[in-house]
Amino acid sequence: MAEEAQEVFTKGEDVLAEEAPETEVVELPPNVQRLQEKQELLRQEIGNLTNQVNQLVADLETRQLAFNQCTALLEQEIET
Question: Does the pLDDT value for residue 47 go beyond 70?
Fold first, then answer.
């Protein structure tokens, strides 16, 4: 019984393969205006992210300086 089912399944696959039409892939010309708009939006987003990173770096440097000053003051306090 299982052999018969497998044989029917295999024949069905063969029939489907024969009936399947060839698909044609067609490339559409790029929409230059849309691509330029997207490129500009991406440039703006990169600029915004760069500004955020620069601000975070500046904040980090400020906090590191403050931490170093606090550490120096604590060391002085401990020594006295």
Answer: yes
Give the CB-side neighbour count of residue 22, counting CA atoms within 13 A.
Answer: 3
Round to whole Å and give the CA distance between 62 and 56: 10
Task: For residues 45 and 53, give the distance between their C-alpha atoms in angstroms, rounded to a whole number.
Answer: 12
pTM above 0.85, yes or no: no
Domain boundaries, the chain: 30-80
